[in-house]
Request: fold
Amino acid sequence: MKLKLEDPIVFTKLIELISELVLEVRIKISDFGLSIVAIDPGNISMVSLKIPKSAFKEFESGDEVLGVNLENFKKILKRATKTSSLILEKKENALEIKIEDKIKRIFTLNLIEVEREEKEFPDHIEFSSKVTIDSNDLIGSIEDCLVVSDACSFIVEKDNFVVEAKETNSARSEFSSDEVEISGEECTSRYSLEYLQRFLKAGKQFSKTTLKFANDHPLRIDFIANHIALSFLLAPRMETED
Reply:
């Protein structure tokens, strides 16, 4: 197995983001490319990362599953710069990581057994509404909600998309159909701001964010750009709002 990736900064940022949810993952290498599916320890959220082999400068592999400690992996990846080439190569029970620039640096990461049960990302879930929004606008709305609460509601009403948090104080952002793409029916669902804030760090790498949800239903968040697909699934918060 040997993979070569030019300009590995986006890959590094995505691994950093996933490491905020889980400590260990299985990285699958197949004819498709590279993929990761993981569930956080609280079983509240799920993440899927897919990078097709066409995104790699070199891609030589059969089917491989690499058990990796993400804390150690991201520390090594952060040694790369925008001008570096990143080469991943399996060597017995280790992953050899080469960062090539003016200097060739070689790291060895011990592969591990990941104990959590392997799951597939559920693509069969049905949603009643879909919203595509500028990532920076959504990040700003989430930050507004964090000022007043630890959860917010996503609301589709008429031709508007609303992000709202209500406790003793409240915050509300409204987007018309001129500002965001809205399809589906009216619905409302409430989600943890702690998790949303983590997920939306990916918005700095992707200009658009797609949200799919329904009344009191899991939320799916999709980021897609340059063949890279990053998705999250988040359970709803079921408390009754005041």
Notes: The radius of gyration is 19 Å. Helices lie at 9-19, 70-77, 135-146, 193-199. Residues 135-146 form the longest helix (12 residues). The CA atoms of residues 93 and 203 lie 35 Å apart.
